[in-house]
């Protein structure tokens, strides 16, 4: 319980003060002020607003607000003055939460999108392991917090508020499901297919310009990753926003399938390098050997002149069309 | 009946089977002995195969005459000749139909007949070849007027000028003094020069319908088919197709012309060709009348697109003369071989495995975790495919140790990488094996069902004859019913169909083999 500017122990607050307002009214006024100055109010502002109110009462009210979790206290960096500001997520909506839970919850809220590790919570709240576990279980049961796994260290558990989306840096990419950390392969396949179709269409459009020469054809069959991102976002294939990096990872997967080629070009306006992609044909369409049964035979290593597997009685040959 | 029982490599098995099918069992056995044991003297071959000396001699004569076996004096005893097999030439028997098709495509039917005769005989003088080709054409045309052999003579000269036929090595003058005649290699310039021939005597013989040429002036000047040149031609077809696929058909034409220029600039097969200047290429395009108009119009653009392409079809080596352009065959064939390998991985394991394979190849060395992230594949699948590929030797693992302490379990990085020559060799062996299987199966089918097939052929002939004599259709149907049952007929149809498929399969395997062999050859060339 912090005291504003006196060293004396604070006396009990009296319900009536000089100006005739009740405590509840003063509290309400303070909350208004806090809303008015979201960046925080200092003692000075309080003084100018309610000069007649006893300092002690103000202090008591502020302390009470803090313990209810509506207000938090900060120290200004330069002047070492104390500020109070309104908390954005009042944790007081949790009924019957005891102090430890509130502390833990406060820490988890602070971590925000990125989540916080159990060890960090333990250090910051200086609770013992057992109490911490109990608290976390209780909070999870109330569905206030949840844990997610980070891609970088799959074993550690990060906690964050229930309704927050985990930040990109810990789930690696949007390609992981929230609940069970499964790789969303259908989504990836869908996007994959979509991007490839786009590039194919662009190539066909470019082909029609054949009379202008092959360099024109080639250059107009390129699409930059930004453009593809734009079109995909417009199509609203996915619920969340696609960034350029996401699309680039999909396109890189297409490069690794050999269907698409990548090159960098400098943007017209600025000096950044932009990644361009186009659909290409392989120099050899397919290995002719794969058209024969032997090319794809699963038991070719066992095939020989003697034994059960011989070309004379190969059933794949019999069924070959 | 050889005393060794180890199995031959798939390539040698293919050669053996080809010799067997083309020349017969006796020659096949002699060929196999030479394949297994390398250089052998006549007596060794006789004891090795257990055949009579007479048979072995004749078999060797056939093989030498067809340029598959060559001889030289043995090191140990200069009075005895040692015979050695040229496996590549034995393998090229498979490609004879492709040679004929190539020649027909480039030149025409009279040149095709010349090459066909030369392939049949093996080695022959120019007059002989011309004489026999004329006879063959006369039979085909069935005309009273006899063909003028001077047209054939010109065709022969054209073939020699383009190096499709080459002169055989001469026998030294004092050859028969020593026990083993020494073969003298001709000088480069002389190899392709056709001697002056008089066509009159040949024309006279043709009019008399003679079957043999008899004595003629150039019987010492012997020609054979130049396998190397044909291989280059088959390779060029693949390269031109690749250029056409990457850009468009006009680019393919341009590439074809440039290939010709490179060949003229640098006749010896080397890893990189000599540079050819921009102006030279432009002249060639201008002279090429049948080319597409787009090519001339956008000539610079086409050239630029080709040399900027990532398959390294052309590389710009200098700036003199408007730009010097050359090709590095090692690079081009590396890209083509990679495309082949990608296709094989795709067909055998699926597209996810292909992503992993290409990814590892492009990144050179990669970790298991990175693999999963870059390829956008779920972790379990990525692991499964990478281990499957490793099982079949498409991927290898390299271990790098982490940390320097040797206390306790040592952690190490396990990196995947692709050893390209190794994988190419694996797929090449597989291709040889599949080629062997196709030939073996075809031979087996045709010999096992020989009686049935002969009966069917006889029946077909008879029906044709009767159809020509205007017999009513229902009589024909009755006759065919009684000769062969429906089940038999369907079996024959099936055998024929499979045989056609197998022939196709053989030529497909050969295409793949050509690209992979070229890659290995240029990769390991100095």
TrEMBL record, chain A:
<feature type="compositionally biased region" description="Polar residues">
    <location>
        <begin position="1"/>
        <end position="17"/>
    </location>
</feature>
<dbReference type="GO" id="GO:0005737">
    <property type="term" value="C:cytoplasm"/>
</dbReference>
<dbReference type="InterPro" id="IPR016049">
    <property type="entry name" value="RNA_pol_Rpc34-like"/>
</dbReference>
<dbReference type="Pfam" id="PF05158">
    <property type="entry name" value="RNA_pol_Rpc34"/>
</dbReference>
<comment type="similarity">
    <text>Belongs to the eukaryotic RPC34/RPC39 RNA polymerase subunit family.</text>
</comment>
<dbReference type="InterPro" id="IPR036388">
    <property type="entry name" value="WH-like_DNA-bd_sf"/>
</dbReference>
<keyword id="KW-0804">Transcription</keyword>
<keyword id="KW-0240">DNA-directed RNA polymerase</keyword>
<dbReference type="GO" id="GO:0005654">
    <property type="term" value="C:nucleoplasm"/>
</dbReference>
<keyword id="KW-0539">Nucleus</keyword>
<dbReference type="GO" id="GO:0005666">
    <property type="term" value="C:RNA polymerase III complex"/>
</dbReference>
<dbReference type="InterPro" id="IPR007832">
    <property type="entry name" value="RNA_pol_Rpc34"/>
</dbReference>
<dbReference type="InterPro" id="IPR036390">
    <property type="entry name" value="WH_DNA-bd_sf"/>
</dbReference>
<feature type="region of interest" description="Disordered">
    <location>
        <begin position="1"/>
        <end position="21"/>
    </location>
</feature>
<comment type="function">
    <text>DNA-dependent RNA polymerase catalyzes the transcription of DNA into RNA using the four ribonucleoside triphosphates as substrates. Specific peripheric component of RNA polymerase III which synthesizes small RNAs, such as 5S rRNA and tRNAs.</text>
</comment>
<dbReference type="GO" id="GO:0006383">
    <property type="term" value="P:transcription by RNA polymerase III"/>
</dbReference>
<protein>
    <recommendedName>
        <fullName>DNA-directed RNA polymerase III subunit RPC6</fullName>
    </recommendedName>
</protein>
From TrEMBL, chain B:
<comment type="similarity">
    <text>Belongs to the eukaryotic RPC3/POLR3C RNA polymerase subunit family.</text>
</comment>
<dbReference type="InterPro" id="IPR036388">
    <property type="entry name" value="WH-like_DNA-bd_sf"/>
</dbReference>
<keyword id="KW-0804">Transcription</keyword>
<dbReference type="Pfam" id="PF05645">
    <property type="entry name" value="RNA_pol_Rpc82"/>
</dbReference>
<dbReference type="GO" id="GO:0005666">
    <property type="term" value="C:RNA polymerase III complex"/>
</dbReference>
<comment type="subunit">
    <text>Component of the RNA polymerase III (Pol III) complex consisting of 17 subunits.</text>
</comment>
<keyword id="KW-0240">DNA-directed RNA polymerase</keyword>
<dbReference type="InterPro" id="IPR008806">
    <property type="entry name" value="RNA_pol_III_Rpc82_C"/>
</dbReference>
<feature type="domain" description="DNA-directed RNA polymerase III subunit RPC3 winged-helix">
    <location>
        <begin position="341"/>
        <end position="418"/>
    </location>
</feature>
<dbReference type="InterPro" id="IPR055207">
    <property type="entry name" value="POLR3C_WHD"/>
</dbReference>
<dbReference type="GO" id="GO:0003697">
    <property type="term" value="F:single-stranded DNA binding"/>
</dbReference>
<protein>
    <recommendedName>
        <fullName>DNA-directed RNA polymerase III subunit RPC3</fullName>
    </recommendedName>
</protein>
<keyword id="KW-0539">Nucleus</keyword>
<comment type="function">
    <text>DNA-dependent RNA polymerase catalyzes the transcription of DNA into RNA using the four ribonucleoside triphosphates as substrates. Specific core component of RNA polymerase III which synthesizes small RNAs, such as 5S rRNA and tRNAs.</text>
</comment>
<dbReference type="GO" id="GO:0006351">
    <property type="term" value="P:DNA-templated transcription"/>
</dbReference>
<dbReference type="InterPro" id="IPR039748">
    <property type="entry name" value="RPC3"/>
</dbReference>
<feature type="domain" description="RNA polymerase III subunit RPC82-related helix-turn-helix">
    <location>
        <begin position="13"/>
        <end position="72"/>
    </location>
</feature>
<feature type="domain" description="RNA polymerase III Rpc82 C -terminal">
    <location>
        <begin position="155"/>
        <end position="336"/>
    </location>
</feature>
<dbReference type="InterPro" id="IPR013197">
    <property type="entry name" value="RNA_pol_III_RPC82-rel_HTH"/>
</dbReference>
<dbReference type="Pfam" id="PF22536">
    <property type="entry name" value="WHD_POLR3C"/>
</dbReference>
<dbReference type="Pfam" id="PF08221">
    <property type="entry name" value="HTH_9"/>
</dbReference>
